[in-house]
Amino acid sequence: MITLSAVNQKYGGTQILWDLDLAIKPGSRTCIMGRNGVGKTTLLKTIMGLLPISSGKLTFGEQDITHSSVELRPDIGIGYVPQGRHIFPQLTVEENLTVSLNCKRQTSKTIPEHVFELFPVLKEMLHRQGGDLSGGQQQQLAIGRALVLNPDVLILDEPNEGIQPNIVQLIRDVLLKLNREQGMTIILVEQKLPFARAVGEEFVLLEKGQVISNGPMAELTNELVGEYLAV
Ligand SMILES: Nc1ncnc2c1ncn2[C@@H]1O[C@H](COP(=O)(O)OP(=O)(O)OP(=O)(O)O)[C@@H](O)[C@H]1O
């Protein structure tokens, strides 16, 4: 369980998250939604330890990780696919993937074969530079890099931004498979409703840095969509 209790988050003097409470169950698929600028990325970065928490508490299972650093996250089993992918363009696909092998949790020194089974293109492109890949291939690389760590929780920030439909489908299928077969917890920021409904079993709707509504995806009504998601 990942739990945020009364979390406040600021950039300098500007407060973004306000007394935010949230509990993510192990093995669940949660989609974090809301209009541009409501604090979705800030929430993910807060869970990842990329931003120091101004006040409140963040726990992972029994462990208080409120003030622990981002470097701890891979070791406790949290993988992250940031918005914009952030692969290393000058490194090969293989080098991008092996970067993750340096974490304590991963005792193997080779890239797990299941990464290539999920994303066969990564094997085909193994010796190509990351920067030469298409957007969709880079996104598969970013997800593959997080999976090298065998995480229990996978956090993804808008993985479908600027990606062609067949790769969006592949990503959807991979996320559902990881959750179904390995019980991996999926936490996803997603703006597109069909993808959110297909992957998320729970929704969390943010508005001005607070959870305005959450629950099973079936309870994300047209009224809520109209009020908090439609532009
Ligand atoms: N590094 C930063 N310094 C100052 N303000 C920031 C920083 N990053 C984000 N913000 C501001 O914080 C607010 C929340 O941003 P955030 O990226 O979390 O929103 P979001 O819901 O993910 O939006 P989007 O859908 O556009 O990605 C926005 O007003 C944004 O301008």
UniProtKB/TrEMBL annotation:
<dbReference type="InterPro" id="IPR052156">
    <property type="entry name" value="BCAA_Transport_ATP-bd_LivF"/>
</dbReference>
<feature type="domain" description="ABC transporter">
    <location>
        <begin position="2"/>
        <end position="231"/>
    </location>
</feature>
<keyword id="KW-0029">Amino-acid transport</keyword>
<dbReference type="GO" id="GO:0015807">
    <property type="term" value="P:L-amino acid transport"/>
</dbReference>
<dbReference type="Pfam" id="PF00005">
    <property type="entry name" value="ABC_tran"/>
</dbReference>
<dbReference type="GO" id="GO:0005524">
    <property type="term" value="F:ATP binding"/>
</dbReference>
<dbReference type="InterPro" id="IPR027417">
    <property type="entry name" value="P-loop_NTPase"/>
</dbReference>
<comment type="similarity">
    <text>Belongs to the ABC transporter superfamily.</text>
</comment>
<dbReference type="GO" id="GO:0016887">
    <property type="term" value="F:ATP hydrolysis activity"/>
</dbReference>
<protein>
    <submittedName>
        <fullName>ABC transporter ATP-binding protein</fullName>
    </submittedName>
</protein>
<dbReference type="InterPro" id="IPR003439">
    <property type="entry name" value="ABC_transporter-like_ATP-bd"/>
</dbReference>
<keyword id="KW-0547">Nucleotide-binding</keyword>
<keyword id="KW-0067">ATP-binding</keyword>
<dbReference type="GO" id="GO:0015658">
    <property type="term" value="F:branched-chain amino acid transmembrane transporter activity"/>
</dbReference>
<dbReference type="InterPro" id="IPR017780">
    <property type="entry name" value="ABC_transptr_urea_ATP-bd_UrtE"/>
</dbReference>
<dbReference type="InterPro" id="IPR003593">
    <property type="entry name" value="AAA+_ATPase"/>
</dbReference>
<keyword id="KW-0813">Transport</keyword>
